Amino acid sequence: MKTLLLVKEIYLDAFKNLGNLIVRNYFRAFAWFSFAMFLVVLYAFVFRISTGFPFD
Question: Which residues touch 55 (CB under 8 Å, ≥6 apart)?
């Protein structure tokens, strides 16, 4: 739980002092998009491992 709170604090600090509203929203959307893509890759990797895919 402490790690989750630290990640939340880092996320909030990263966007606290950005000036332009458009830039701030762009980077926030890009951060969420990157997190979603990481989850997709993690899901695909776990799926391949669970189905016995040979990594040659």
Answer: 48
Domain of 16, in residue numbers: 2-50
Between these two residues, 32 and 11, which has the higher pLDDT value?
A: 32
Query: Per the domain annotation, does 26 fall within a domain?
Result: yes
Structural domains in the chain (count): 1
Triad 39, 43, 15: Cα angle to 5°: 5
pLDDT of residue 41: 97
Measured CA to CA, the distance from residue 27 to residue 14 in angstroms comes to: 10
Residue 11's closest CA among 30, 20, 43? Answer: 30
In a domain, 56, yes or no: no
Cβ neighbours for 27, distance < 8 A, ≥ 6 positions apart: 15, 18
